[in-house]
Amino acid sequence: MHLFKKNIIAILVCSSLIYSGCKAPSIVQDTKKLPAAPVYSSSPDTTNTATIQWRNFFTDKYLVSLIDTALKNNQDLLVTLQEIEVARNDIRVRQGQLSPTVSGRGGLGVEKVGRYTSQGAGDASTEIKPGQAVPEVLGDYGLGVSANWEVDIWKKLRNSKKAAVTRYLATIEGKSFLVTNLIAEIANSYYELLALDNQLDIVRQTIQLQQNALEIVKVQKEASRVTELAVKKFEAEVLNSQSLEFDILQKIKEKENEINFLLGRYPQPIARNKSAFLDLIPQQVHGGLPSQLLKNRPDIKQAELELSAAQLDVKVARAEFYPSFNISASLGFNAFKPSYLLTLPESLIFSLAGDLAGPLINKNAIKAEFYKANARQVQALYNYEKTILNAYIEVSTQLSNLNNLEQSYNLKTKEVDALITSIDISNDLFKSARADYFEILMTQRDALESKLELIETKLHQFNSVTNIYRALGGGWN
User: Fold this and answer.
1) Structural contact between residues 75 and 182, judged by C-beta atoms closer than 8 angstroms
2) Residues near 272 by Cβ (< 8 Å), separated by ≥ 6?
3) What is the pTM of this model?
4) Which of 203, 222, 261, 332 is least enclosed, having the fewest CB within 10 Å?
5) Across the strands, what pairs with 330?
6) pLDDT single digits (tens) 217-236
7) Long-range contacts of 434-438 (CB under 8 A, 24+ apart)
8) SS3 37
């Protein structure tokens, strides 16, 4: 009893020395905070377009079908799903570290020691039975179980598990953010494809008009009202428009292949609505309040979870400065002959030990790990603030862009109408010799450019609506 008390006192003294030598540095945190974000407009509205499911936001059945296919086959999305699976199994690894490790053992072997060694001399004098000594060549047979358990005094293992769970949740938010971007990218590409189809139609209509004008000029040349120069100018204009037709055809092919790549399939025609693109009306959007971004944007929630995980990593690294307490135990049978292996109590072996260990000197590696984790925590904080700032700026920019595009589209429509009228006027004036061929060429060229620009403006409107929907955090739910 007296010896037991001495051992307890010795353990306590060693523990105090280890603990005093393992004092951890303090955690450094950045205390700067972003100011509250202002509202998007002077008349804030709590209605938020991001709450609309993408199937209800995009009404084109062909576009919905393309998005459905992409959500099943897109390679980036499939890779992200495996990252989620990796994170899920990492939780199991951390959970396993909290529980005792139990392992079974079985073995056999032979051993011969020298007679003139201390062990050999002792064995030679040992009798198994009266008159029978231990043989020179001994077998070694063993069977048993052993266990080892690190007692989580400083919550190091529990915080490690919490960090793994938090990162698992972050990968889910990352997957949602990828889905949002994927849907927006497919929608934008689809609208670009529709715009190219309509631009192709306009170019072909313009080629027909130019060819008609060319025939008129040829007649005028035969009547000596214009020169060969006018004919060649009109021919060059037709050839230029025909070249533009093939450029657009190539862009259509490239855009189809881009969509096919996002859908995870080989090149094939993209089914789409080829009706008049200019007659389509973009969806109405509502920006809501900036505070709703924190709930709707998956990348903000992902950055927040990454910050929480980094904070837990700092706690885990800080716990490395403190002593760890391990308990180990074993129980089994050991004998030099199989028939004696299960003989009780002679062949029974067991052990139970506790181990308290901690760093005393040369803690540079542990300090480095701690400071590295602390720096990553501050880095995660800056990334979180940057993500919030970027989200607000994206929404603000796209809302302003949508409003300006609406004004631009109205003016561009009037410009196209005026130029279409001017084509008829210039043709009539040319036939009556009151205008030269150069005016007709310039009028047709200006009208073509304005029509193409009008389609580009309509495309930008659709892209802006899609980008606002993505920026507000819509599409993943």
Assistant:
1) no
2) 62, 63, 190, 193, 194, 197
3) 0.83
4) 222
5) 146, 351
6) 888 888 877 788 888 988 99
7) 437/217, 437/226, 437/230, 437/233, 437/234, 438/233
8) coil
Omega of the bond prior to 345 within 30 degrees of 0, cis?
yes
**The domain containing residue 435 runs over which residues?**
32-99+155-322+367-471
Phi and psi based region of residue 96 (left: phi greater than 0; alpha: psi -120 to 50; beta: remaining):
alpha
The contacts of residue 196 (CB under 8 Å, 6+ apart) are 248, 251, 252, 255
Q: Which tokens hold the place of 92?
A: 């199991």
> Residue 19: what residue type?
Y
Read off the pLDDT of residues 82-134 as tens digits, 9 standing for 90 and up. Answer: 999 999 999 999 999 898 899 998 888 888 777 666 666 655 555 555 656 56
At 139, list the tokens: 């077998």
| Strand-by-strand arrangement of the 101-112 sheet | 101-112, 137-151, 324-335, 348-357
333, 341 in Cβ contact below 8 A?
A: yes
Cross-strand partners of 433: none
Domain assignment of residue 91, yes or no: yes
Question: Distance (Å, rounded) from C-alpha 240 to C-alpha 243?
Answer: 5
Distance from C-alpha of 174 to C-alpha of 178, rounded to nearest angstrom: 6
One-character DSSP codes across 300-313? HHHHHHHHHHHHHH
Q: 403-425: b or e for each residue (b if 16 or more CB lie within 10 Å)? A: eebeebbeebeebbeebeebbee
Q: How far apart are CA 327 and CA 162, in angstroms?
A: 24
Place of tokens 């300090």: 367
pLDDT digits (tens, 9 = 90+) for 400-454: 999 999 999 999 999 999 988 888 787 777 666 666 777 778 888 888 999 999 9
Q: β-pairing, 324-335 with 132-133?
A: unpaired
In a domain, 372, yes or no: yes
φ, ψ of residue 107 to 5 degrees: the values are -160, 165
Query: CA angle, corner 201, sides to 198 and 204, nearest 5?
Result: 150
Domain count, the chain: 1
CATH number of the domain bearing residue 372: 1.20.1600.10
- Which bin fits 475, alpha (ψ -120 to 50), beta or left (φ > 0)? left
- In sequence order, the β-bridge partners of residue 144 are 105, 332
Residues sharing a CB contact under 8 Å with residue 455, sequence separation 6 or more, in sequence order: 195, 198, 199, 202, 277, 278
The residue among 140, 296, 278, 265 whose CA lies nearest residue 202 is 278
- Say if 26 falls within a structural domain: no
Does residue 59 belong to any structural domain of this protein?
yes
